[in-house]
Write a structure and sequence with these properties.
The protein has 343 residues and is α/β, with parallel strands linked by helices. Helix content is 24%, strand content 30%. Strands 12-15-14-13-16-17 form a six-stranded antiparallel β-barrel. It has a five-stranded parallel sheet with strand order 3-2-1-4-7, sandwiched between helices. It has a four-stranded mixed sheet with strand order 9-8-11-10, with no helix packed on it. Strand 5 and strand 6 form a beta hairpin. The N and C termini lie far apart (49 Å).
Length: 343
């Protein structure tokens, strides 16, 4: 009997090709479209149009197709958490939490109850002997967003497009005669229709406060610390010949601290919380890694230490705009070791 796998289908080219590859490989494939919460239900990843595309692909490759409604869980675990963390003055990454809690959490749980042996996604990542590896396509690698996964999840996950580049995936889509071959890239935060700030304004009230320079001089007024992120230059509305950058936030005094010197944004170390090691075992410290402090960051050499119960990361080269709430993620060659949330 063929092994049963449930593939998360978003209506995009990556998950569609992933489904076709699994079918070709002889798996008993079931397509699932996950319905997430959105204020207007028009976002690309779970809109009626996306569902229609996913259903069309499932029909084309002749696999069963179902809809799982995760709206309530998504709103509570992802959106409400996103708003709460922003309100605390930090800048979260909801995709990391969604992968852990929804795509490789709820979906996997439901899949196992339905008798499936695996779940699969269109992520550009690979695995080998329960090690999580970068995707083949350096520009599309999504392993950064998967650092919260554990061994139980990883042993049940398949990444069919992880060994292909994006152009190769589009070629495969045409080869399989899939209508989604030219589907554009999806937006980064699925429940944000336009900009993050516009979304935040709908759910968090403004709270004006002072904008001060590094000497404490008042030079402007902000509308709420949650509308700004470390390193931000645009939208400060400060009259000056030389641009200002957001350097820090003083939550206690509701003050936004800015600087005109970009070098002030450079930092050589950080502390992380909520640390997860993919192997399930804490390494012997100190360890040398390649660390990334944001998705589009190329990564740089660093040493990870444990001091007084806290995990510290010391970079060989200073990093720009280290942002509390974002993820610091560690690699050894192609392998993703784990990560944590920047304090």
């Amino acid at each position: 009997m063929n092994k049963k796998v449930i593939i998360a289908m978003s209506g995009g080219v990556d998950s569609s090709v992933a489904a076709a590859l699994l079918k070709k490989a002889g798996f008993d494939v079931i397509g699932v479209f996950m319905k997430f919460w959105h204020p207007e239900s028009k976002n690309r990843c779970c809109s009626a149009e996306s569902e229609k595309r996913a259903r069309s692909v499932a029909k084309k490759i002749n696999i069963p197709f179902y809809i799982f409604n995760f709206e309530k869980d998504f709103k509570k675990k992802i959106v409400d958490s996103f708003l709460k963390i922003n309100k605390e003055g930090r800048t979260p990454n909801p995709c990391v939490v969604c992968n852990k809690e929804i795509k490789f959490g709820l979906l996997l749980e439901k899949a196992l109850k339905l008798g499936a042996e695996y779940i699969a996604t269109g992520h550009y990542a690979r695995k080998s002997d329960c090690k999580l590896l970068k995707g083949k396509d350096k520009n599309k690698d999504q392993s950064y967003f998967l650092w919260k996964l554990n061994q139980k999840q990883l042993e049940r996950v398949l990444f069919p497009v992880g060994s292909y580049t994006k152009p190769e995936v589009r070629v495969l889509a045409r080869k399989f005669n899939l209508s989604v071959a030219e589907t554009p890239e999806s937006q980064e935060i699925c429940f944000v229709q336009t900009t993050v700030n516009e979304f935040l304004r709908k759910y968090i009230k403004t709270k004006p406060g002072k904008i001060v320079d590094i000497n404490g001089k008042i030079i402007g007024e902000h509308q709420g610390l949650w509308f700004y992120t470390i390193g931000q230059r645009k939208g400060l509305k400060i009259s000056s010949d030389k641009p200002y950058y957001v350097l820090n936030k003083n939550i206690k005094n509701n003050t936004l601290i800015v600087t005109q010197e970009e070098k002030d944004l450079l930092g050589k170390e950080l502390t992380i919380t909520g640390v997860n090691w993919i192997s399930g075992k804490e390494p012997k410290f100190p360890i040398s890694v390649i660390a990334k402090v944001r998705y589009r960051n190329k990564g740089t050499g660093a040493v990870v230490k444990k001091e007084k119960g806290k995990i510290k990361v010391i970079f060989k080269k200073s990093q720009r705009a280290i942002t509390p709430g974002q993820s610091a993620v560690f690699y050894k060659g192609q392998e993703l070791l784990g990560g944590g949330i920047i304090e």
